[in-house]
Amino acid sequence: MVHAVEDEARTTRDRLIETARELFHRQGYNSTGVAQILKEAGVRSGSLYYFFPSKEDLLVAVLEWYQENLWPVVMGPVFEKVTDPIERVFGVLAIYREALRTTGFTFGCPIGNLALEMSDCRPETRRMIVENFEGWRLAIRKCLDDAADRFPPDIDRERLSAFVLTVMEGGVMQSRSYRSIEPFDAAVAQLRDYFERLAPGTRKSEPVS
Amino acid sequence: MVHAVEDEARTTRDRLIETARELFHRQGYNSTGVAQILKEAGVRSGSLYYFFPSKEDLLVAVLEWYQENLWPVVMGPVFEKVTDPIERVFGVLAIYREALRTTGFTFGCPIGNLALEMSDCRPETRRMIVENFEGWRLAIRKCLDDAADRFPPDIDRERLSAFVLTVMEGGVMQSRSYRSIEPFDAAVAQLRDYFERLAPGTRKSEPVS
Known about the structure:
Structural class of chain A: mainly alpha
Strand content of chain A: under 5%
Number of helices of chain A: 9
CATH topology of the largest domain in chain A: Tetracycline Repressor, domain 2
CATH superfamily of the largest domain in chain A: Tetracycline Repressor, domain 2
Number of domains of chain A: 2
CATH class of the largest domain in chain A: Mainly Alpha
Oligomer: homodimer
Number of strands of chain A: 0
Largest interface: A-B, 47 and 47 residues
Helix content of chain A: over 70%
Shape of chain A: elongated
Order of helices and strands of chain A: HHHHHHHHH
């Protein structure tokens, strides 16, 4: 009986997080009202305020969800399919390309959107945005470390991993505005050119398909 | 008499644009209510709706302001002070560094903010965001063209100019979240490394100060 109540509470909480995540991603945090979250989740306001005293508490839970799902949703599938560490970097970028295309260039990177929208947020919220960036960057850093012997010795791989994030976010931003995959593809192609100059022969490691 | 009325109309319209521009930049478009714009501009709602039937019409005027002021405010001062075309590119990036620092990492690039916030906007608004990006990119493209003989012949300068915009926006985004200039500086340093590999000796052209 206690378990059944606990399960139901978990379900309601999860449903709120899932609905809020989807709405924040689609229309932004500030454009999403609590009433819409309640309606789309099919949850009463008392339940919402029981779990999340404010909309920003719900946002923090959404950011925790993204953090917990970075590996299962984004990195894991690429790392399983691709073995070459440098190709893994470009495999991760390809996921964002696919997401841009399948959403008609409307959704973009959920963390990047929040990073620019939440200028006046609580320190906890900002910290969660930074932790999401850090998790992403560290996964890329791991790829670069695994290919360390292919880069010039003076390359700062910590900084290069942040640069990959920079290029992803800047490319996604332009593709959303232009409603075209072209700016994103151009940004990735330029990053590829840079990698080719740092680690010549990178492309040779791509599987022949 | 007609001139005096025209002047007053221009003043009211300009004041609305200036107030909205500042508020949209500081707190975002969706977080800014019409009532706040009216109050801070000291304008009555009838005057607002006379010039701008909707908040989005006011946003379009703000975007036109940015477009008209790209040269006088951003590019002009750099192009006047710096003569080396590649250093002009980094001089433009330094303006964003300065803006991040002086605003405590809160404001960022106004066009980049709007690019991610306005996912569901009118085509005219999106077109104005794209035109602002294009104006910026073309100024960078001009610098790269002026230094054409220093780049490898196979470098696509059109794509490279978009890459500079990509790096600026991605770097600004991270510095805003981290509340630190470090991510922006790291992104620019990595771009500098790329430029050094494309056009060796770039740094030698910097003035000794």
